[in-house]
Amino acid sequence: MLTNRRTAAAALGTVVLTGALLCAAPAQADAGAPSAAPSAKSAPKGDGAEALCKRLPKVEARVGAALTRLNGDVTVPGSIARLEKRVAEAKAAGHTEVHTYLNGRLTARKNMPATLQKRQADLKSVSTWCAARGAK
Question: What separation in angstroms does the CA of 103 have from each of 1, 6, 56, 75, 108?
């Protein structure tokens, strides 16, 4: 009975290996062929202006909320002031690795308001553009 199981397992393994080799052969044959051009489905069909105009109020609200959060006081999670306090506390406690990590985050977070304010100004001009074209 044990030999029958071994024979059956060996036969099954041979079939699986043969199938894998047969499937891999066409893929290897095409390896040198140039790839096909992207399908027409994946190509953009415009600049997405209609979709942007449609979701503009949500984007403006999200940018405004982010600016409010960043400019919040120490009690606001995600604010610059709160992170500054955490950096100071890490330094005072002598946690140099934590201080270094948080200080890097603080540097990045301090750059965010300028980027978001620029984005707000851009969104205002997009809003004017959408209104002039009657877009929703």
Answer: 69, 63, 34, 19, 9
Distance CA 23, CA 66 (A): 52
User: How far is it, in rounded angstroms, from Cα 127 to Cα 116?
Assistant: 16
Instruction: For residue range 68-112, list pLDDT tens digits in order.
Output: 999 999 999 999 999 999 999 999 999 999 999 999 999 999 999
Two structure tokens written together for 73: 């006081």
Instruction: Match 């929703």 to its residue by tokens.
Output: 136
* Cα(87)–Cα(79) distance, integer angstroms: 13
What's the first-to-final CA gap in the chain, in angstroms?
Answer: 75
Per-residue CA distances from 51 to 10, 70, 100, 131 (Å): 58, 28, 41, 14
pTM of the model: 0.62
- pLDDT for the residue 110: 96
For the record, the structure tokens of 134 come out as 């009657």
